[in-house]
Here is the input.
Amino acid sequence: MRKPESKKTHDARNARLNPVQARCNKIMGGREEYKKLPKDERLALRAEVTLMLEREKSPLEKWTDHAMKVLPFVKRGGKGKPMTTRKTVKVEGEKVPQGWVYAIRNTSYPYVLKIGKTYPDGIEDRMSEARRWGRAELVAKRWADDAIGAEKFMHMRLANRNLRNLSFTDCGVELFKCSEKDFHMAFTDYLYTLEEEDESSVR
Here is the structure.
């Protein structure tokens, strides 16, 4: 059963609070005109507007981008022998698609978020895992009926901010140089995509 959306979720779906959607609507002359575009043209427009907004960043934001490129990131060392013999544990139960898409950060690196997914009751496990390697705090979490699909969409949407794509090779694949706002905007785009697919199926 889908969990009720919080006020933040409700607000995030408001196009007035989403700069990318607001700019797309303005370019097309309104939300309705934007919705008339074919899906591939909508996605292309959103990508173009995202780059446009990146270029309009303030000097402070641009300085932060530069600073992040020289921050050291430590990767866990090579594989070692286990201290004890491990046994495979078979877990019984139904695999559910619902879950959370979450963002966790090490407070020493506030502009880097680990964006992943977990099962409905798995947030505490993810936090415990993150704290094995340093300080960690939960920045945001959003509920999804298809957590795997939501995570894949957000990773694609934020691909230009992925540390691997920014030339860092000593880190995991789920680290992104972005803010909590960027996380919620990406999830909002995911919700809009679902709505557009629903509208297309009704026609």
About this structure: Strands lie at 99-105, 112-118, 137-144, 175-177. The longest helix spans residues 180-202.
